[in-house]
Structure formats: structure tokens, C-alpha cells
Amino acid sequence: MNEMNVEVGAGGTPWVKFLHESFTNNASNVVFLDHGETISDISPKQGKRIQGDTSAIPLKAESTDLIFGKDVFGSERESKGLYVGPVGDLNEIASEWFRVCKPGAHALILEVNTPQDAPIEKLRNAFEKAGFKLEKEYKGVDEISGLFKENASESVKRTFSTGIDYPNTEYDKSYALSFVKP
Q1: What is the pLDDT of residues 135-170, one digit of tens each?
Q2: Nearest of 140, 86, 75, 87 to residue 113 by alpha carbon
Q3: CA-CA to 108 of 20 to 30 Å: which in 73, 132, 133, 167?
Q4: Which superfamily is assigned to 4-180 in CATH?
Q5: pLDDT given for residue 100 in this prediction
């Protein structure tokens, strides 16, 4: 069986490689989708790089086992100078993610740079409206670290707790949503 994982908004760090096997099924076929030039920082050995839009993913319907996005939806990035443009209509994005997921596949959203008015409810509603079922909601660094492989979990926790990635981020307000396509 040809399993494929997709990371949306990959930028320069392939986070999908650190996710727990229960999400990735150890798929060797990884696609990194980003609309910016930073995707060129990811080695072709790590997976296929595609420049594109999260609301029009250039993949076949029901072709992926996991679609993952880290800090794709958090609006705080704009105030930190990290936001490079509007992410788009949440309902369109959720429908597109649903389209490319196989039945039983996961859609995993991780928001680390989370503002006080985080769009968690809007995300939950859009993805459920698209047909996904919410599997689990993770809040805070301790819960989120459980998403990652055991050997990466402590490193991820340390990164979050020290603010190495983004100084002045309130990591305790971070969250993740795990959805499954029925």
C-alpha cells in the first residue's frame, strides 16, 4: 500500500517527520506543500516539495493518509512579522483537506503561535462541517508533546518551553486538533 503524508505550510522545518507513528504510519512518501520560497530549505531527500495553496492542493482525491499543518492558521504570526499572507477561507481549506484524505486518514492542526483569540472554534466548526470527526483536542505543551515520537517529544517540549522557535510566544496557549475522515 502506498501511504503518503502531506505537510502544509512546511516552510523550512519538516515537522511531520517528528510526529508519532500512530499518525504517520511510518509512511516513506512525504509531500511538503508551501506557498513560499522557504520550502526550498527542505532537502529533496526528505520528500517531494510542492509550491501551492492549501485551499487547492495539487493532489488526487483520497490520496493521503495524513495531512498536517503547523502554524498555518494562527493569526498571531502577523503581529510577529511571520505572517506572509491570508490563509484563505477556512471552509474551503477544510473541504480541500477532506478531499485529499483517504477514509480513515488524519487531519492534524498544530498551532504553537496561538493568539488569545485563537480560531480554535472556527477551525473545529469548519473541519466538522467538511465531514471530519474531531478525534482529540490537545492543549498546552505537555499534551502537544504527546503528538511526537518518544525520542523527539522531549526535544519538542524543550523547544516550546524555552521559546527557541519564537521568543515571546505563550506556548501554554498552544493547541492541536486531530480529526479523522470517516
Answers
A1: 999 887 778 878 877 666 566 656 655 544 555 556
A2: 75
A3: 167
A4: Vaccinia Virus protein VP39 (3.40.50.150)
A5: 96
d(CA 120, CA 101): 21
Domain ranges of the chain: 4-180
Per residue in 13-67, pLDDT (tens digit) is 677 777 877 777 766 788 888 776 655 566 666 778 788 888 889 999 999 999 9
Q: Could you give the CA distance from residue 95 to residue 181 in angstroms, rounded to a whole number?
A: 11
The pTM for the full model equals 0.82
